[in-house]
Design a protein that fits this description.
By secondary structure, this protein is mainly alpha-helical. The chain is 26% helix and 4% strand.
């Protein structure tokens, strides 16, 4: 069987989902693009205290010289929706929980 080159292989996008700076979902993401929203913001107080970590000198030890970035919004997470016991949250990485939310939204969009 001869394989088809990748550049001519048709694909189908059946769903899209994501969490982006200042956007809970793909729809908000595209709205931000259409409205030319600058999603790079100052560090939200809920993330870290700028005064504790910021120094404009890039050579300052144990400090960052950046205080702006692309921060995703707070995302509601119900562990029971995913069949997880609530006590597992303290030992689960946030990126894994966000991946579950995006996977759920992807399947809903598909």
């Amino acid at each position: 069987m001869e394989s088809t080159p990748l550049h001519t292989t048709p694909i189908a996008i059946i769903g899209m989902a994501g969490i982006f700076p200042l956007a809970h979902n793909s729809r908000e993401y595209w709205e931000n693009i259409l409205h030319k929203v600058d999603c790079i913001t100052d560090v939200p107080p809920s993330r870290w205290n700028v005064e504790d970590y910021y120094d404009p000198d890039p050579n300052a030890p144990d400090k960052t010289y950046g205080k702006r970035g692309g921060f995703i919004p707070d995302i509601d997470f119900d562990p029971l929706e995913f069949g997880l016991p609530p006590n597992i949250l303290e030992v689960t990485d946030v990126s894994q929980l966000l991946a579950l939310v995006v996977a759920r939204d992807l399947m809903a969009d598909a």
